[in-house]
Amino acid sequence: MKTLIKSGRVVDPANKIDEKLDILIVDGKIKELAANIDPGDADVINAAGLIVTPGLIDIHTHLRDPGYEYKEDIISGTCAAAAGGVTSLTCMPNTSPVNDNLAVTQYIINKAREKGSANVYPIGSITKGMNGEMLAEMGELKEGGCVGFSDDGLPVMNGEMMRRGLEYAKTFGVAIFTHAEDLSLVAGGCMNEGPIATELGLKGIPWVAEDAVTARDVMLAELTGAHLHVCHVSTKGSVDLIRHAKARGVSVTCEAAPHHFMLTDEAVRGYDANFKMNPPLRSQDDVDAVRVGLADGTIDAIATDHAPHHIDEKNVEFAIALNGVVGLETLLPLTLKLVSEKVLELSQAIALVTCNPAKIIGIDRGTLSVDAVADLALINPNTEWTVEANDLHSKSKNTAFNGQTLRGYAVRTILAGKTVFER
Amino acid sequence: MSFNPKHILGIKNMSAEDINFILDTAESFKEINTREIKKVPTLRGKTIINLFYEASTRTRTSFEIAGKRLSADTVNISASGSSVVKGETLEDTAKNIQAMHPDIIVMRHNASGACQYLADRLDCSVVNAGDGMHEHPSQALLDAFTIRQHKGSIKGLTVAIVGDITHSRVVRSNIYCLNALGAEVRLAGPGTMLPPGIEKLGCKVFNNLEDAIRDADVVMMLRIQRERQGAPLIPSVREYARFFGLNGNKMELAKKDAIVMHPGPINRGVELGSMVADGPQNVILDQVENGVAVRMALLYLVSGGEKLGSE
Q1: pTM (2 d.p.)
Q2: Domain assignment present for B113
Q3: Same domain, residue pair B226 and B160
Q4: Which CATH architecture has domain A2-51+374-381+407-422?
Q5: Contact A200/B134, CB-based, under 8 Å?
Q6: Residues of B in contact with A316 (CB under 8 A)
Q7: ipTM of the predicted structure?
């Protein structure tokens, strides 16, 4: 089976390609990139005027399957991914049961393989049951397909346990994904601490709750030599800590979520729980620092922290609403917005959602190299569209961007040579 | 001018004209409360539901009496605990109440933003009787009314508010109200009870009571909840009273004719010594009395005010 993608602007940062090329796909793999390839008997997809990139990779999502299928499942979550141009994603282990054992890992991988529209790479838990007490069987989980370990959302508060988690994960060559948050400093807070929280009468979460644990974990990575990946960096302090750690050679990577470089805590006025997430929306200074971090390479990847919640869990008083927003279907336009706002070059932006995240989880995706699996996104970068929560493919509609007009979307998403989404 | 808002959710977006209009309206209602027959037919046929998710004696009674003296039918609902504990969401509770066609819901709720939440979803008027740590507009208005009664005008006065600023909706509403009317607002409390960025609401922040009340025209003391004792906020009620209680001779620092206010209920010997609480400068019971008139005005204005008579 042959497909020729004709006349697109091919952007493949891993190979430093940004030019008008044809791409020939044979049997699900990339066979050739060149100008004016003879189609022969191949199906031709006209990509003139489109940007052709590796399929996007989102290394921070919650698919809620098993256990919370009323919010999302592997089928709906990967449909949302495909609709957003995302072909590979990781899913966090805070399912029910927790992904701390091979059976859950295999369930996720098998269901995704049989019924999914994207490659799913599970993240296993650092500790059994994510309760911070005993290490999970990371060796077996890695063999089973886990690409990283995290107690996301239930941060490992005990420093000794985190240290052992890093050392143990290093044995198997995988990263620990830290959700950097000192729960004792959060102390019931529900939005960023500062003048707006004070005005709204909502208990604040200070930046130090994030920075203190980022500092601890960066130092533990330095101590152990393990690969630490810091999830959803949202504060100026955390960006600075990671920048300094990288400068002295610590094995640390990190990601930022689109809502943390597009929105501030101003959005919480009105008490709409679709602006409630963890880490919370921060100040303008923090947003600016995250953008600088993306531009200077301190931040390695853009990841959505796609966190579907049922409307009944959001349509309540702000203080008791659950944390999180969906993000898979708005990742691409919000990333491209950093290009139109001159924060990033296009190739930089695409690297942040393709080859960079691939490297963090150690998968051979995120490039258009010859012989690579043909996961691609065909992107219309210019067309404006308005986010309508009810039109999202995700089961949950808790987007922070409802009603916003964005620019650019995937017009076709190709997974191993097969079109899984087309608009 | 006239001022007939659909809801009273907070003071933040009110102008000085709006506030003065409410206070003037309250002035005209105040006399009713001292008549032998304390009832006028103004809101006859209107139904007011007092939906209280937090314990309240003063505010709920005040709203209930205000409604009854205007001839409205008032119903009290005390919802124990939060909506989550009850198992019914706030929206469901509210919609059930709405199905009975009330004209006004007066709500107190432990969650900041809860009254806004209700107003966004219901057809009837919503009056905020205190939402979390956000606003308590009727309290700030009755405070302004009481200050005006004793000082003639609010413009140019210095008002010191002392206590647990962080958890106080009374403070936030008072800052907006007093600023709009031209007063200088000073705050004082232990560092653990001063929320970050509060000065951006329009006030000066002091670390000790003495500096805050020096030459003040009004000293407003806030209730310290005893359950905060021993938690990270204050080591003991004893120590709090020593540094932030208004007792002994401290009132001598304020202006000779300064008044002492308190939203109640008072913790005698904690934030307010009995000598001060019962002293000649206290206007605490005036606040309670004026509360009825101010709440009559609010219920009247959200019902349409002068337009009521033309129906």
Answers
A1: 0.94
A2: yes
A3: yes
A4: Roll (2.30)
A5: yes
A6: 83-84, 89-91
A7: 0.91
Higher pLDDT, B232 or B195: B195
Least CB–CB distance from A317: residue in B113, B172, B196: B113
Superfamily name and number for A54-361: Metal-dependent hydrolases (3.20.20.140)
Instruction: Give domain status of residue B200, yes or no.
Output: yes
Q: What is the mean pLDDT of residues B283-291?
A: 97
* CB A232, CB A256: distance < 8 Å: yes
Domain span including residue B163: 137-287
Do B177 and B238 lie in one domain? The reply is: yes
> Does the CB of B196 have a partner CB in chain A at under 8 Å?
yes
CATH 2.30.40.10 placement within chain A: 2-51+374-381+407-422
Residue B2 lies in a domain: no
> CB distance B200–A199 less than 8 Å?
yes
Which chain B residue lies closest to A202 (C-alpha atoms)?
B112
Q: Does residue B311 have a pLDDT over 70?
A: no
Q: Token match 């006004």: residue?
A: B104
CATH code (residue B173): 3.40.50.1370
Number of domain units in chain B: 2
Q: Distance between CA A391 and CA A387 in Å, rounded?
A: 8
Least CB-CB distance to B196: which of A193, A202, A270?
A: A193
Minimum mean pLDDT among A63-77, B51-65, B280-294, B297-311: which range? B297-311
Flag if A199 and B196 touch (Cβ within 8 Å): no
pLDDT of residue B81: 54
Domain with CATH 3.20.20.140 in chain A: 54-361
pLDDT tens digit string along B128-140? 999 999 999 999 9
B contacts of A322 (beta carbons < 8 Å): none
What DSSP string runs through A327-374? -TTTHHHHHHHHHHTTSS-HHHHHHHTTHHHHHHHT-S-S---TTSB-
Q: Are residues B243 and B154 in the same domain?
A: yes
Say yes or no for a CB contact (<8 Å) between A317 and B116.
Answer: no
pLDDT at position B2 is 82
Amino acid identity for residue A172 in this structure: F
Residue B296 to residue A409: CA distance in whole angstroms: 56
* CB-based burial, A350-366: b 16+ in 10 Å, e otherwise: bbbbbbbbbbbbebebb
Distances (CA, A) of B127 to B8, B124, B213, B289: 5, 10, 32, 19
Cβ-nearest to A320 among B84, B116, B172:
B84
Question: With pLDDT > 70 as the criterion, what percentage of chain B qualifies?
Answer: 96
Q: Which residues in chain A are closer than 8 Å to B132, comparing Cβ atoms?
A: 201-202, 319
8 Å CB contact of A319 and B111: yes
Q: In this structure, what token pair is assigned to residue B204?
A: 């000066």
